[in-house]
Design a protein that fits this description.
Blueprint: E1 2-6, H1 10-21, E2 25-29, E3 45-49, H2 58-76, E4 81-82, E5 86-90, H3 96-106, E6 112-114, H4 116-122, E7 133-137, E8 140-144, H5 145-158, E9 162-164, E10 169-173, E11 178-181, E12 186-188, E13 191-194, H6 200-203, E14 212-222, H7 228-232, E15 236-239, E16 246-249, E17 257-261, E18 266-267, H8 281-287, E19 300-311, E20 318-322, E21 325-329, H9 339-352, H10 355-362
Parallel strand pairs: 1-2, 1-13, 2-9, 5-15, 13-21
Antiparallel strand pairs: 3-8, 4-8, 5-7, 6-7, 10-11, 11-12, 14-17, 14-18, 14-19, 16-17, 20-21
Length: 367
């Protein structure tokens, strides 16, 4: 089949990769450059981790996620996963770290538990006495998003796919299988896959209600000089405990250290709105991490990056079929790690038509 993929974030690129491997004629169309720094997939790194709440189901899908990434690394000839493991820090009963621990225990996935003093000795950037316990799992790390995007675009071009950058799609005629570009040009296909990320509601406004767009920001920092060595060898911090909904990615893959918190996100009606960071935004994000990060005010802000992404109400993933078009939104703030697997599943669905099965898998309701 002739297939157009709209959007070259991780879901779109992975879908195009898998479609091309299956012998389809593929064109992928991206409104910006690849990688696009304004897209959710366009940052330097994202976390992969086994830990999910016991009821979520997504922890089980991580095995398939790793398998899909391994297939991709083999094709790209490069591995873009820094498998340094992750730690979670619990500061209050029932907090996010405790929920993730319950999920690991329910799945019988290994982790190592640390009392507060032992954790602070092992990871010197932690503030002793500010948390209940910490635990380490080897089953996670950091994916290098920009390297992955650049590698996939190169692979697609080398494997006879058409890759269109800076080509904004302004309309999708799902019944006719046609897209219209901002330039006025049109493209036709047997099937269209829309993986437009935070911009999907501009093309399919009827999904407003099932999907909501949010804007957030991330703070890149330089740690104090005496803690740099500790951070360079540290695991990813998946949860800092309490109500912060915060994570930390140490320096990895040539990119700096990053703080991010779900508390900082705000709803938006337009993914292009307020994409310039505002004064003091980086410091506001950084300061959420004390405790358990010690001396947090000594972490110098080096860059603040904004991000727009879509969420479903239950933070699961969504697929929507309309005419010749399949819309996929596998985000909800935790989708990147599944990107390669999502691409394989979506490409298979284009071939076999089992959209119902895809929806079940995307929601982690069956494995």
């Amino acid at each position: 089949m002739n297939v157009i993929v709209v959007g070259a974030g991780i879901a779109g690129l992975s879908t195009a990769w898998s479609l091309a491997k299956a012998g389809h004629r593929v064109s992928i169309v991206e409104q910006g450059p690849i990688p696009n720094p304004l897209a959710a997939s366009g940052d330097h790194h994202r976390i992969i981790r086994r830990a999910y709440g016991a009821a979520a189901g997504y922890g089980r899908l991580i095995t398939e996620a790793y398998d899909a990434w391994d297939e991709m690394w083999a094709d790209l000839g490069e591995n873009h996963l820094d498998r340094r493991g992750f730690i979670c820090i619990s500061r209050e009963p029932g907090d996010e770290a405790e929920e993730y621990r319950a999920g690991l225990e329910a799945g019988n996935y290994p982790f190592e538990l640390f009392e507060p003093d032992a954790a602070a000795r092992r990871w010197r950037f932690l503030e002793p006495g500010s948390f209940r316990y910490a635990y380490f799992s080897p089953d996670g790390g950091a994916l290098h998003c920009r390297r992955i995007a650049a590698g996939l675009a190169k692979w697609l071009r080398a494997n006879s796919a058409n890759v269109y950058e800076n080509s904004k799609v302004v309309e999708v005629d799902a019944e006719a299988g046609r897209i219209v570009l901002e330039s006025g040009e049109t493209m036709q296909a047997d099937r269209i896959v829309v993986a437009a990320g935070a911009w999907v509601l501009k093309l399919f406004p009827e999904l407003d209600g099932e999907l909501k767009t949010w804007r957030t920001a991330l703070a890149y920092v330089e740690p104090p000089a005496d803690l740099k060595a500790a951070w360079h060898t540290a695991p990813v911090i998946l949860a800092v405990g309490g109500g912060v909904d915060g994570y930390v990615i140490p320096p990895s893959g040539g990119a700096g250290m990053k703080f991010g918190s779900g508390l900082h996100r705000v709803p938006t009606s337009d993914a292009d709105w307020n994409r310039q960071p505002v004064a003091g935004e980086g410091e506001a994000i950084r300061n959420l991490f004390s405790p358990p990060i010690a001396r947090v005010e000594e972490y110098r802000i080096t860059e603040v990056v904004t991000c727009a992404y879509t969420f479903t109400a239950d933070e699961k993933f969504l697929a929507h079929e309309k005419g010749k078009c399949l819309v996929v939104s596998a985000c909800s703030g935790h989708g990147y790690k599944f990107g390669a697997a999502v691409g394989r599943r979506v490409a298979a669905t284009v071939g076999n038509g089992d959209v119902a099965g895809l929806k079940v898998w995307l929601r982690a309701e069956a494995v």
